[in-house]
Amino acid sequence: MSINRRQFLGAAAAAFAATALAPGFHLVELALADSPEQGASALKRWGLLIDTAKCSTGCDACVTACNKANGLVSHNRPETDSQWIRKVTLRGEHTGYVQSLPVMCQHCADAPCVDVCPTGASFKRADGIVLVDRHLCIGCRYCMMACPYKARSFVAENITGQIAEVPRGKGCVEGCTLCVERIDRNKIPACVEACNETGGKAMMFGDLKDPESTIAKQLASRPSTEIRADLDLDTGVRYQHLDV
Amino acid sequence: MRLLIAPIIVILATAGSVYGAYTSAKDGSRSVPQPDVRDAKGKHCVQPTSIMLRDHMVFLLHQRFVTVHDGIHATRYSLIRCVNCHANPVTHSVLGKNGFCESCHTYNAVSISCFSCHSPSPSQGTPGPNGVPSGIMESSLRPTHGARDFGTVIAQASVHLVDPTGTSARVLP
């Protein structure tokens, strides 16, 4: 068997790459590094499944829990107050059917906010959580323009009394982090916890990539939808019984 | 002419500083407020003081990227842990006139922006700096483990923390 020049160069490059890896550095081990204390892993994709049939109009347990967990304080200016999650009520134009659902950052796989960010502050973690790195954010608000879900807020006021695990301050854009600091410590997002404890048990959190997870089984067995599915953003937050 | 002026300036400056030191010593006060860096709870810091004085910002800068982007919450150079240990016991803050961070940065005329976002007060809730709280999660997820040492995590990621002083990192208690 003879090999041509191109094949030879390819094989040589592969051999060089294999030997150039640092000693003790194994690609397979890196791929298996999926436990929270080892950081975010691309083997997981965190997501939410929200059953709007169980979500009642009068309940805002998820919003209250989010505000408390992340230290979001109202300045009594609803137009500019930070809002990481909100309750939206829909009323069918022809049917009059009223639905209530929580809307937050949908943690898109193809996130428009990440596309437009000029500094790299908007980014997607390996496990699919879309975040703002406040160290890099210059507060230009392009991401707020780009987001089809109005999921982000701009912090326009000086903030004191932050929760130590949730740093936030003036001049940066922020949004739902899926309670990343809780996820990294093996806790579920505050909204989901509150919904299951005092709300309508409408929210479910889990790993979309794990076929054995409850959320993946639910998604596989019943129809669900994304909000603005026409944009094809492959959101990490999905809804069941949503009639739009 | 220039050769003459330079020594005169030096002599005047020296005389001024000597006189200043003399008057300060005489009335027992200093004209510049000294940094108040006494507050610390633990027996020793994560690195010797000489290294921390020079390189604490390097450690924090490195760790902040690893934490925010890679989700690795190591405790070794965690700002939360700094604050938990160094907050003033009276004001519960590293800021203010006697605050560990602010007093030294004021003395050195360096402005810090960390605390426009980060809390200058010790962490109130869970998790603590050394522990991971219990939580509810799907059974398919791994059980809760203790937080890992930063050095271990970094070594696994095959990234090496720049240690400009060349000293090896001490293992935390």
Description:
- The complex is a heterodimer of chains A (244) and B (173).
- Chain A folds into two domains: 5-36, no CATH class; 40-240, 2-Layer Sandwich (Alpha-Beta Plaits).
- Chain A is 25% helix and 17% strand.
- Chain A is built from eight helices and nine strands.
- In chain A, a hairpin with a 6-residue loop joins strand 2 and strand 3.
- In chain A, helix 3 packs across helix 7 (190-197).
- Chain A is globular, with a radius of gyration of 21 Å.
- Chain B has a domain at 31-126 and 147-165.
- Chain B has five helices and no strands.
- The interface between A and B is large, with 49 and 40 residues.
User: Count the strands of chain A?
Assistant: 9
Largest sheet of chain B: none
What is the chains' assembly state?
A: heterodimer
Compute the CA-based radius of gyration of chain A: 21 Å
CATH fold name of the largest domain in chain A: Alpha-Beta Plaits
In total, the number of domains of chain A comes to 2
Instruction: Compute the average pLDDT of chain A.
Output: 89
Form type of chain A: globular
- Count of discrete alpha- or pi-helical segments spanning 4 or more residues of chain A: 8
Decide which structural class fits the backbone of chain B.
Answer: mainly alpha
Helix content estimate of chain A: 25-40%
Query: Could you tell me the strand content of chain A as a percent range?
Result: 15-25%
User: Unreliable stretches of chain B, pLDDT < 50, 5 or more residues?
Assistant: 20-26, 126-173
* First-residue to last-residue Cα separation of chain B: 64 Å
CATH architectural category of the largest domain in chain A: 2-Layer Sandwich
What's the CATH first level of the largest domain in chain A? Alpha Beta
Q: In one word, what is the shape of chain B?
A: elongated
Terminal Cα span of chain A = 61 Å
